[in-house]
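User: Could you go from structure to sequence for me? I need the amino acid at each position, not a summary. Structure tokens:
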């Protein structure tokens, strides 16, 4: 269960990095499809954010799976994973709500971007903690020089 959680957390963190890149693509796509008069249609802008939206919902589902992995392993592994995973799901719910709110009230999009930084930070920290714990466990379980004598 440790390996599954650690690897899933790492893949989720990687997906979030890709998600941020897709958001940047959407912004640059909007500039690219605008004409010299500065006009651009809403559909043209939305087309650039399609992959960003799809991956965002996939990330939310992946975070739910991470939370399930934390719940399944909580008896043996403690509650830190459960807290971190639950916090990540909570931030992602806020992220989805902020995206919808930003469509209706554009200035709220600022909060969507700021919350994205919190999501990326939490996911990266969670994956980093898991790998650090794995390395520490491997170091303590490996036989020392005295054991080989």
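Assistant: Here is the amino acid at each position, in order:
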């Amino acid at each position: 269960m440790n390996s599954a959680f650690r690897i899933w957390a790492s893949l989720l963190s990687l997906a979030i990095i890709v998600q941020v890149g897709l958001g940047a693509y959407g912004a640059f796509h909007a500039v690219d499809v605008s004409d010299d008069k500065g006009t651009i249609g809403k559909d043209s802008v939305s087309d650039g954010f399609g992959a960003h939206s799809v991956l965002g919902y996939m990330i939310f589902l992946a975070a739910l799976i991470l939370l399930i992995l934390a719940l399944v392993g909580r008896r043996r592994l403690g509650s830190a994973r459960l807290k971190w995973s639950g916090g990540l799901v909570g931030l992602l719910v806020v992220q989805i709500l902020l995206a919808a709110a930003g469509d209706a009230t554009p200035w709220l999009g600022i909060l969507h971007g700021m919350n994205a930084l919190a999501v990326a930070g939490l996911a990266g920290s969670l994956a980093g903690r898991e790998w650090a714990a794995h390395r520490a466990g491997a170091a303590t379980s490996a036989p020392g020089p005295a054991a080989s004598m």
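One structural detail worth keeping in mind: The two ends are 33 Å apart (CA to CA).
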